[in-house]
Amino acid sequence: MTLRQRGPQTPPPQVDAIGAEDKTAARQAFHEAVERAIAEQMPTSGPLVDTFGRVHTDLRISLTDRCNLRCTYCMPAEGLDWIPSQHLLQDDELIRLMRIGVTRLGITDIRFTGGEPLLARHLEGVIAAAAGLQPRPEIALTTNGLGLARRAGALVAAGLDRINVSLDTVDRAHFAEITRRDRLPDVLDGLAAAAQAGMAPIKVNAVLDPKITGEDIVNLLRFCLQHGYQLRVIEMMPLDADHNWSRDAGLGVEQLLELVQAQFALRPDPKPRGSAPAEVWLVDEGPDNPAGTFGIIASVSRPFCGDCDRTRLTADGQIRNCLFAAEESDLRALLRDGSDDDAIEQAWRAAMWSKKAGHGINDPDFIQPDRPMSAIGG
């Protein structure tokens, strides 16, 4: 997709990510930002667009920043300073924002993330509320799989359509080393329960962390093919809490692809990629594997920003127009200051209107976001 600039960009109003003390000032800032965006020809109805004409139909909602694993590429062993509970969106606030997104902004897909969303006790209720919206959105979940075995059936009954499970290796010792928890059997049980509950497709997300080897990925792909799961390997991005990311650490995408091609017969998937983040290959049937697919999400080395259709809502009510955005737009302040749906809709539109052409990771002046991935949501 070729990006097209339709007008000057106005940065969204800047509000502290954990809440503005002066709600009146926050509300006034949003009104001023909306007025500027409208003056710059921002549509006040119809699809949720930016100045480049990208249409955002995919809403990613982080339900919590907490997690029960401590993956080395994500957070330190002791965890992080969690978002205070009073700053988290309440169920009624979250459901209201989902309704505005679906009925006013054209959201067609909702994915719940974390942190670890299965730690949210209200998850089934929120999924049911999303499933009750008209027109009904597709509903997906990204999880580490811990606790999935006992909740998969209830999640499907609530309305969950699809699931992605994060799993970097099927080597138990290596899993424990990466996650700092010896819980691989629980994750595998969760995957099996998701399949038994009828979720499809089931995707497995593996991060190309420096600790991951070619053997890890080859064995993981063979496991996924044998069980009917779809493996997607994600290039590590600068979203780690320790800010130790390096583009030269570990396996590169091209090296990984060579290692996989040495073990499996791959053919590029002829289907159009559209806004999907993964480059997909068809895997032919082999001596010890059925046919299936294999994907790589190379956000750093092969960015796909020109086709991005995502808008992101953090657990504390901030809209982020990009994973790597330096700014956030505080919808929670509007929710708690008595703003009506019209005001919240226009504030959301203004936040997305200012979305940049790309994430800027490869720019010399790129600065890693303050929030780690666990506090943004994938």
TrEMBL record:
<keyword id="KW-0949">S-adenosyl-L-methionine</keyword>
<dbReference type="InterPro" id="IPR000385">
    <property type="entry name" value="MoaA_NifB_PqqE_Fe-S-bd_CS"/>
</dbReference>
<keyword id="KW-0501">Molybdenum cofactor biosynthesis</keyword>
<dbReference type="InterPro" id="IPR007197">
    <property type="entry name" value="rSAM"/>
</dbReference>
<dbReference type="InterPro" id="IPR050105">
    <property type="entry name" value="MoCo_biosynth_MoaA/MoaC"/>
</dbReference>
<dbReference type="GO" id="GO:0006777">
    <property type="term" value="P:Mo-molybdopterin cofactor biosynthetic process"/>
</dbReference>
<feature type="binding site">
    <location>
        <position position="308"/>
    </location>
    <ligand>
        <name>[4Fe-4S] cluster 2</name>
    </ligand>
</feature>
<dbReference type="GO" id="GO:0005525">
    <property type="term" value="F:GTP binding"/>
</dbReference>
<feature type="binding site">
    <location>
        <position position="111"/>
    </location>
    <ligand>
        <name>GTP</name>
    </ligand>
</feature>
<feature type="binding site">
    <location>
        <position position="166"/>
    </location>
    <ligand>
        <name>S-adenosyl-L-methionine</name>
    </ligand>
</feature>
<dbReference type="Pfam" id="PF04055">
    <property type="entry name" value="Radical_SAM"/>
</dbReference>
<comment type="similarity">
    <text>Belongs to the radical SAM superfamily. MoaA family.</text>
</comment>
<feature type="binding site">
    <location>
        <position position="305"/>
    </location>
    <ligand>
        <name>[4Fe-4S] cluster 2</name>
    </ligand>
</feature>
<feature type="binding site">
    <location>
        <position position="322"/>
    </location>
    <ligand>
        <name>[4Fe-4S] cluster 2</name>
    </ligand>
</feature>
<feature type="domain" description="Radical SAM core">
    <location>
        <begin position="51"/>
        <end position="269"/>
    </location>
</feature>
<feature type="binding site">
    <location>
        <position position="67"/>
    </location>
    <ligand>
        <name>[4Fe-4S] cluster 1</name>
    </ligand>
</feature>
<feature type="binding site">
    <location>
        <position position="142"/>
    </location>
    <ligand>
        <name>GTP</name>
    </ligand>
</feature>
<keyword id="KW-0004">4Fe-4S</keyword>
<dbReference type="GO" id="GO:0051539">
    <property type="term" value="F:4 iron, 4 sulfur cluster binding"/>
</dbReference>
<feature type="binding site">
    <location>
        <position position="60"/>
    </location>
    <ligand>
        <name>GTP</name>
    </ligand>
</feature>
<dbReference type="InterPro" id="IPR013785">
    <property type="entry name" value="Aldolase_TIM"/>
</dbReference>
<dbReference type="InterPro" id="IPR010505">
    <property type="entry name" value="MoaA_twitch"/>
</dbReference>
<feature type="binding site">
    <location>
        <position position="74"/>
    </location>
    <ligand>
        <name>[4Fe-4S] cluster 1</name>
    </ligand>
</feature>
<dbReference type="Pfam" id="PF06463">
    <property type="entry name" value="Mob_synth_C"/>
</dbReference>
<feature type="binding site">
    <location>
        <begin position="310"/>
        <end position="312"/>
    </location>
    <ligand>
        <name>GTP</name>
    </ligand>
</feature>
<keyword id="KW-0342">GTP-binding</keyword>
<dbReference type="GO" id="GO:1904047">
    <property type="term" value="F:S-adenosyl-L-methionine binding"/>
</dbReference>
<feature type="binding site">
    <location>
        <position position="203"/>
    </location>
    <ligand>
        <name>GTP</name>
    </ligand>
</feature>
<dbReference type="InterPro" id="IPR058240">
    <property type="entry name" value="rSAM_sf"/>
</dbReference>
<protein>
    <recommendedName>
        <fullName>GTP 3',8-cyclase</fullName>
        <ecNumber>4.1.99.22</ecNumber>
    </recommendedName>
</protein>
<keyword id="KW-0547">Nucleotide-binding</keyword>
<keyword id="KW-0479">Metal-binding</keyword>
<dbReference type="GO" id="GO:0061798">
    <property type="term" value="F:GTP 3',8'-cyclase activity"/>
</dbReference>
<comment type="subunit">
    <text>Monomer and homodimer.</text>
</comment>
<feature type="region of interest" description="Disordered">
    <location>
        <begin position="1"/>
        <end position="20"/>
    </location>
</feature>
<feature type="binding site">
    <location>
        <position position="237"/>
    </location>
    <ligand>
        <name>S-adenosyl-L-methionine</name>
    </ligand>
</feature>
<comment type="pathway">
    <text>Cofactor biosynthesis; molybdopterin biosynthesis.</text>
</comment>
<feature type="binding site">
    <location>
        <position position="71"/>
    </location>
    <ligand>
        <name>[4Fe-4S] cluster 1</name>
    </ligand>
</feature>
<feature type="binding site">
    <location>
        <position position="115"/>
    </location>
    <ligand>
        <name>S-adenosyl-L-methionine</name>
    </ligand>
</feature>
<comment type="function">
    <text>Catalyzes the cyclization of GTP to (8S)-3',8-cyclo-7,8-dihydroguanosine 5'-triphosphate.</text>
</comment>
<dbReference type="InterPro" id="IPR006638">
    <property type="entry name" value="Elp3/MiaA/NifB-like_rSAM"/>
</dbReference>
<dbReference type="InterPro" id="IPR013483">
    <property type="entry name" value="MoaA"/>
</dbReference>
